[in-house]
UniProtKB/TrEMBL annotation:
CDD domains: APH. Residues 37-255 form the Aminoglycoside phosphotransferase domain. Belongs to the aminoglycoside phosphotransferase family. Gene3D superfamilies: 3.90.1200.10, Phosphorylase Kinase, domain 1. NCBIfam families: APH_3p. This is Aminoglycoside 3'-phosphotransferase. It comes from the Bacteria. Keywords: Antibiotic resistance, ATP-binding, Kinase, Nucleotide-binding, Transferase.
Length: 270
């Protein structure tokens, strides 16, 4: 871990190094963003801690941190999100420095807060995101393009099936993609979506919502993109018996199960 921190420190630009030179680095080893993520702890003021994401730029992750930066800036003042401190793209890497949202992610707090409270915060938080006014939103998530990318990932071998959900474990990626194509929804309920609404991306502090993180996939899309991943996360951490409470607190009384299955299936390719 120390070697990786030292390696990352060597590729910092002079401007970024100046901002964080007095900070202590801690590598974050959980999460699936693909970026190297570090918690930067201030030696002088614990209210000025940062998170730094570093991502090698390639064809699969091109400008991913730029996308997150743009969405966070658009969301500032609309939702509790980090504040962008510094962004740059240099020497084949992207760097995104953000302020810390105080608290812990909901997945880590499952033994510290009662489950109904977490589910309530989780559902009401999603409703808050989905209620955003999208008339000036520049971020449109194109489902056809996402499906095209899924197909490309199957063809180039990026999708191996090793981390498929249990119900898909015995299905080959190409056959699973065929199943995906055959289940594309015909109607869409477009709202502003998070894109990866799981418990790890919800920050809680003193039993209240503190903020939302990891926004690179945010944009206008079908609300079931978020609902599907939210209930998958609930099932993983708490069990299926809590899903109905989530629906109730969100205000969803007629669930489109076909859409839930489709968006969970779509996520298998990313």
């Amino acid at each position: 871990m120390k070697d990786n921190i030292e390696k990352m420190q060597l590729i910092l630009s002079r401007d970024l190094r100046t901002i964080i030179e007095s900070y202590t680095w801690h590598e974050i080893l959980v999460g699936l963003s693909g970026a190297n993520t570090f918690f930067l702890e201030s030696k002088q003021d614990h209210n000025q801690n940062y998170f730094l994401k570093i991502l090698r730029n390639n064809s699969r992750a091109s400008d991913k941190l730029f996308s997150e930066k743009e969405r966070i800036i658009w969301l500032e003042g609309k939702l509790p999100v980090p504040k962008v401190v510094h962004y740059e793209k240099t020497n084949g890497y992207e760097f995104l420095l953000m302020t810390q949202i105080v608290g812990g992610n909901a997945a880590d707090l499952i033994h510290a807060i009662d489950i109904p409270r977490i589910i309530t915060i989780y559902a009401e938080g999603l409703k808050r995101i989905h209620n955003l006014d999208v008339k000036d939103c520049p971020f449109q998530i194109d489902l056809d393009l996402k499906i095209k990318k899924a197909h490309e990932r199957v063809l180039d071998g990026s999708v191996t099936g090793d981390d498929f959900e249990e119900q898909y474990k015995e299905i080959k990626p190409k056959d699973l993609f065929r199943l995906l194509i055959n289940s594309i929804p015909k109607e869409h309920e477009l709202v502003f979506t998070h894109g990866d609404y799981c418990l790890e991306n919800i920050i809680l502090f003193e039993n209240e919502l503190s903020g939302f993180i990891d926004w690179d996939g945010g944009g206008i899309a079908d609300k079931y993109q978020d609902i599907a991943l939210a209930i998958r996360s609930i099932e993983h951490y708490f069990g299926v018996q809590w899903i109905d409470l989530f629906y109730e607190k969100y205000g969803l009384y007629e669930v489109n199960k076909e859409k839930v299955e489709f968006y969970i299936l779509l996520d298998e390719f990313f």
